[in-house]
Write a structure and sequence with these properties.
With 227 residues, the chain is α/β, with parallel strands linked by helices. It has 2 domains: 5-138, Rossmann fold; 144-227, Winged helix-like DNA-binding domain superfamily/Winged helix DNA-binding domain (Arc Repressor Mutant, subunit A, Orthogonal Bundle). It contains 10 helices and 6 strands, in the order E-H-E-H-E-H-E-H-E-H-E-H-H-H-H-H. The chain has helices spanning 14-24, 39-49, 65-75, 90-99, 111-122, 130-138, 156-166, 171-178, 182-196, 201-210, and strands at 5-10, 30-36, 53-56, 81-85, 103-106, 127-128. The longest helix has 15 residues, at 182-196.
Length: 227
């Protein structure tokens, strides 16, 4: 039996939380383990519950969502956060991504888009609304975006793995494709982020696009099925 994805909802609007509850409860593969209406309570409850995926509103009282993301990621760098908001302004989008959100989805997205985004974030795959992805792509040459400046050179294997990360492959898929262990892939990804001084896979993917390591029009390679 598959263990459901444990989800935490952080939003200051009760009607939004109720709507998310109603949608997620239709999925046997997902379960809601807790919720909060402000950033401070979110940080505290996430620390206690350790959910698999956190749905984070960015505009909340006491502590906003961006600061909550930073606090959560500081305590648990592996936390997987999907920013769910109505705002597309640059001063909201980019700080959320830089703080460590693995996904960014607008509240007017289709229900199936949200459910797929939750699965993607749970699997460690960046998930961005198309309009947000376009904004980030346009920012690839902006000096304030992740620079990735480093005195350390990526190895040939790390460059290959970075390319696959940018193509949206999970660690498990990369491991299957390269015939190495998933743990080895995780170690390589950690080394890539450390060398490039980046916070997460989303920033790594943006770096790969900016540097020409990967292209938006280049599909991910097909992962061979398990024998």
């Amino acid at each position: 039996m598959t263990i459901p994805i444990r989800i935490f909802i952080a939003d200051d609007h009760p009607i939004v939380r109720e709507g998310l509850h109603a949608l997620i409860s239709t999925e046997a593969s997902m379960t809601i383990v807790g919720e909060a209406a402000d950033g401070e309570d979110t940080v505290r409850r996430v620390r206690e519950l350790k959910p698999d995926v956190i749905l984070m509103d960015l505009i909340m009282g006491k502590m906003d969502g961006i600061e909550a993301i930073e606090r959560i990621k500081l305590e648990d760098p592996g936390a997987r956060i999907l920013a769910l908001t109505s705002f597309t302004a640059d001063d909201i989008v980019f700080p959320a991504i830089k703080a460590g959100a693995l996904g960014y989805l607008l509240k007017d997205s289709a229900p199936q888009e949200l459910l797929q985004a939750i699965i993607n974030v749970y699997q460690g795959v960046p998930s961005l609304a198309p309009s947000i992805a376009l904004k980030l792509f346009q920012e690839l040459h902006h000096p304030e975006m992740p620079a990735g400046e480093t005195n350390e050179t990526l190895t040939e294997r790390e460059v290959l793995i970075l390319k696959h990360v940018a193509q949206g492959l999970t660690n498990q898929e990369i491991a299957s494709l390269l015939v190495i262990s998933e743990r080895t892939v995780r170690n390589h990804v950690g080394s890539i982020l450390s060398k490039l001084h980046l916070a997460n896979r989303t920033q790594a993917a943006l770096y790969a696009l900016r540097e020409g390591i990967a292209r938006l029009d280049e599909p991910a390679k097909t992962v061979p099925p398990e024998q």
